[in-house]
Amino acid sequence: MANLKTNDFPTKIFRFDDLAKLADYSLLDTLSPDPEATQSGEDYRPRQVFSGHYVPVKPTPIGNPKYIAHSKELFRELGVDDSLALTNDFARFFSGDVTHVPEPMRPIGWATGYALSIYGNEYIQQCPFQTGNGYGDGRAISVLEVVANGKRWEMQLKGAGRTPYCRGADGRAVLRSSVREFLAQEHMHALGVPTSRSLCLFTSESESVERPWYLPGSKSADPEVMVSNPVAISTRVAPSFLRVGQLELFGRRARSNAHPGAMKELEMIVLHLIEREYKIEINEDLPIAEKTLQLAMAFRDRLTSLVADWIRVGYCQGNFNSDNCAGGGFTLDYGPFGFCERFDPFYQSWTGGGRHFSFLNQPFAAEKNFGSFCSALQPVLQSHPTALAQLDEIRSGFPAVMEEKLQTMWASKLGLAAYDSELTVQLLQLMAQTPVDYTIFFRELSTIPNDITSISKSFYKKATDESNLQWDQWLQKWRTQIDNRNSIDIISQRMKRVNPKYIWREWLVVPAYQQAEDGDFALIKEMQEVLTKPFEEQSEAVEKKFYRLRPQELFGVGGISHYSCSS
Ligand SMILES: Nc1ncnc2c1ncn2[C@@H]1O[C@H](COP(=O)(O)OP(=O)(O)OP(=O)(O)O)[C@@H](O)[C@H]1O
Ligand SMILES: [Mg+2]
């Protein structure tokens, strides 16, 4: 055999131009730009934006950017080589300096306005002008749209400086919240939960900002001190960043006839949402009223599936307002989110979220957001009474669809052929009463145990004799009801594809961002590895470190168990 030379295997060096070739802005161009916007994108003062779908904004780069991480999985999906992440052009662009880019990329980004409803109630108070015209992307700036492998992606820098919607704030994101969002997005994707994705993460070696935070070990509900944190920019990626709140902004304007073009702008954003997120499901040739109804149906379907998935993996969004609810039906805005470790139906890590946005109340919060979405669509159908009535039916059908999705989800978590209400409710009561670790419990159950020895690994307290008896009875009853059409092995395998082994445990993530603040990114890489393979068994060392109950002393600690602000 002839000797092979290394250049027989040429490795393609990816250049920034290769990414530029994927750029495509066609639809954005058809959305009317705001006539009042300063076209240079360099007017960062908070101001009212009365019309239009976006405003041009030039990002403000962070000083001395330092690469921390990128998502290999997303690079692969985009067809881009990992080597690109380490190039100077890439670092420059994704740390906010978009001024020197090859065509057809643009040296300017865009931010969008949106409205806010909290648990279904419309608010304008958060807008500094008390009109709703100054609220929107305060620190998120989209910079690029690409089409790769037939899929369209919008890329958005979070923490890239002020926009007209910044409301007087600094437009920055600290390293802590950026690391959390960066890791969480790819974790959720690996858990099979629809989500915005993470492209890359850069921090600044010279710039920091102050944020209120907790003293070490603090049990206080509110942060006690201002802490200086390095700033960072994470780039998130999704088919669009259209939120329910965005539809609402245009819906409210159409409803009040805020300006002569208000109705037209609402119709445009509705069609744009369909184009970006529902192109496959909704036929382009239908009249707009029919399209709008199909949109409501399709969004209802996605949103209910999403929330069932959140509950499946123990995720609590924490702040599920309409402006944090993506119109594409995926998870967006990883702020005060958390994963339920010790099972509590009202688990919630955001101190401002109350029970409304707590773990098992998320179906109701979603229903409220869906109501806001439907209200925003109403003006489009105002001259179609039949369609309006149909929209009402779609809206009032939400709880039934939600319930069906939840039942299917519980049945799959429990390895049942069909949902069993009594069995499930009894289980949830026992889980709360014991209490158990949500993830460890379901993973151990997935081994289809005969007795409670293995599931008791998930118990946060030693069970009483009475409670052991109840568990035993429940387990025996469950075993008679598991899907008997298949062998135990098959059921176990299926359950292990639904019930993850490794989930986000905040107390294990905290050291990762703390060390990153000192320039050590090793734990971030480790978390990336572990959290992107949540269903795999992984190594013994990983199991020992990550498949663990939260230590007692870490309950009730500010910045781990709860946060009042997380940005
Ligand atoms: N430091 C900041 N500077 C400017 N605007 C901010 C800042 N922090 C938050 N905002 C804006 O305040 C609003 C509410 O904040 P929230 O915590 O939901 O947002 P976020 O985490 O920045 O946003 P997103 O929903 O884009 O992930 C958002 O419109 C956000 O853009
Ligand atoms: Mg938000």
TrEMBL record:
Coiled-coil ranges per UniProt: none
Chemical reaction(s) catalysed: L-tyrosyl-[protein] + ATP = O-(5'-adenylyl)-L-tyrosyl-[protein] + diphosphate; L-tyrosyl-[protein] + UTP = O-(5'-uridylyl)-L-tyrosyl-[protein] + diphosphate; L-seryl-[protein] + UTP = O-(5'-uridylyl)-L-seryl-[protein] + diphosphate; L-seryl-[protein] + ATP = 3-O-(5'-adenylyl)-L-seryl-[protein] + diphosphate
Binding site for Mg(2+): N324, D333
Binding site for ATP: G136, G138, R139, K158, D170, G171, R236, R243, D333
Record keywords: ATP-binding, Magnesium, Manganese, Metal-binding, Nucleotide-binding, Nucleotidyltransferase, Transferase
A Pfam family reported for this protein in Swiss-Prot or TrEMBL: SelO
Active site: D323
Enzyme Commission identifier(s): 2.7.7.-, 2.7.7.108
Keyword Magnesium: yes
Cofactor names: Mg(2+); Mn(2+)
Enzyme class: transferase
Superkingdom of source: Bacteria
Any one GO molecular function term: magnesium ion binding
Cited InterPro entries: SelO (IPR003846)
Family: Belongs to the SELO family.
Role played: Nucleotidyltransferase involved in the post-translational modification of proteins. It can catalyze the addition of adenosine monophosphate (AMP) or uridine monophosphate (UMP) to a protein, resulting in modifications known as AMPylation and UMPylation.
Protein name in the entry: Protein nucleotidyltransferase YdiU
Species of origin: Alteromonas pelagimontana
